[in-house]
Amino acid sequence: MSSIRIAVENIGKSFGARRVLRGISLEAVSGEVVAVTGANGSGKSTFLKIVAGLIRPSSGTITLTVDDREIAEPDARRRVVSYAGPDLAFYPELTAQENLSFFAEVRTLPITLAGIKNSLVAVGLGGRGDDPVGVYSSGMRQRLRLAFATMLDTPLLLLDEPSLALDKEGVRLVAQTIERQRAKGGVTLLATNDPEEAELGDRAITANGARSQTFSTLIAVGGPALVSGGIGKG
Amino acid sequence: MWGVREIHAVFLKELRTEWRTKVALSSTALFAIGGVTLAALALRGNPPLALDDPSRASVAAGLLWILLFFTGATGLGRAFALEEERGTALALRLTARASAVWIGKFLANALLILGLAIIATPMLITALDAGRNVNALLLTCVVASGCIGIAATMTFAGALVAQASAKSGLLATLSLPALAPLFVAAIHGTRAALGVGTRLGIAPAFQTGMGDLQVLASYAVISVTAALMLFDYLWND
Amino acid sequence: MGEMFPLLAVALLIWAGIFGFIFVVDRKVKALEERVNRELALTRKGEEAIR
Amino acid sequence: MATIAKIVLGILTGVFTALAFLYLKPAEGFPRPELARIVALHLPNAMAAIVAAFVAAIFGWKYLARGRNPLDDAKSKIAAVLAAIFCGLTTVTGMVFAQYQWGAPWNWDPKQTCIFLLLLIYAAYFVLRAGIEDPEKKGATAAAYIVFAGVMTPLLGYVIPKYLPSLHPTNTKFDAAYHTVIWGMSACLIGIFAWLQNIGIRYEQVKGMAQQLEEEMA
User: For chain A, which domains are there?
Assistant: First the structure.
């Protein structure tokens, strides 16, 4: 896996006059896992979507560098970032396998049907790959989201509440996914409310919603605290 | 530049999801058939109207494009509206390029409206008895190129409407003024194909309709190009 | 030519009304601008004082 | 400075209005020659509408393609409002003219049809804006529509005159007096457009600042 570096500088977002995010900064390099914590409505999800390129930030910059090459083009970014979040949905008329095949095709991934079946097996959906996603339970959908994100196999992995609706085994799966991403030398950003899950990160940053930058602090959970943003440094 | 593999994937996905539910297919087909029925009821009622050939042809040309416009407005907006409603737009935006998404959906929409036109056009023309002097080749060319223009503009307008909360009727409202030049030429061309202002035979009808075909072709080219360029900005927001 | 003058007077009166209206709106916006600017300056000053 | 320009604009508008009544000769060949003077208001209104439509499309494109600056969206939106107003005035003055000279207020004449479709575009534009909550999505979507419609309308201007028989004069030449008055009046109306546009932008800006202020107080 290629080496990656992500630098987020002072990202802010307002929807009109309503400010949902202010002054988030962060830097991470290959092998790191950063937990993004914060109360409900603090802007964690918005932050992840901004990094994924799904929402345009109102202020601040994000610099993605892969193998010393800066990624600027939206099409190039699609090949570098994958995302799994609660509002990621799939086509209910298509089977899980058809869904993944379709997304692999539009991304022109060099992946075979066997590879897609394997990634379904890996998230515990091996026997249900031919069922239409419309009949899936919420836990199965969550597993499919994980399969989607890992199938894309990108240096930057964004997980928003990955354990949502998952059983014990599913939670272990999330930890495995993150460990594998770390071993490959990728970066993982993990937005979570669960303090136990936040422990999976080497360190954590807190999204503090609309409040001023002065108050958005940074808490180190452990591990190599590299450069961090905001005022308080880990 | 625009990968064929990606366009093909989007196109096939559109067809496959539509084929499993057949919602757009059945609703638009019923819409078109219902329209033809009403037109026939109005014009073939008792006492019978004594319309001459050119009048019947003109009425048929007008009704055909009214029918295709509203059939399109019923069915073609789904392509993007569904992605937004079900939240699949997110996964699509994470993986697919703007050009592939737009072209794939445009092709699927064009196929849908062309299919409907193939059913509705002969039905309407026989129902109104407007085909006595028909030039089938010109009619096919006019209807096909007109449908491509409608599909392009409505696929683009559908992407805009998908962002709005109240969607009903909005697609027709947005696309009608943009489609006006197309309809002017398409109705004129259809009238020519049905023998208005021409005498029988291939050459005269094509002489009258050539200008219309040129307008329809340039409309298709301009609308596809403009939609592709603008959609790129919207998709990579 | 002479019968045009009453019509012209009406037309000029309408124009005067339109221009007067735009002028008043312009002034109102200007007043609003000044008020908001003043309040903005006050808040900034307040923030600095707290620090 | 600005005040002086506004006063000059007002005086000029008055002068050209006076010229329209006193200097223009009644147009010959019309049923009501003295009423033909309304073209001195009709054509300049159409001119201002076109300028406003152009401004709306340009700033729409700028918003869409150049970094989503809310100010560009505001400029585009205000120009669209003004374009709709000038379109409406053009239609009304045109209908008055048509009623007295051609016998009916509406004839589906090519230019009437064009202006009608232009009005329809702006109506659709505002319906679209009203239907979208998020200001950025609203701006981008509305901008995409106004640019798309802006690309399609010249085609309309090219296509429609080819198909519909026109009542508008194509070969009658206006004399020099008409030219002076129409161009002068056009300049005045475009000046009024610029002034209104400026007021509108300032209002949008001050509204934004007030909201920001509220946000900071909270």
Answer: 1-78+185-234 (3.40.50.300)
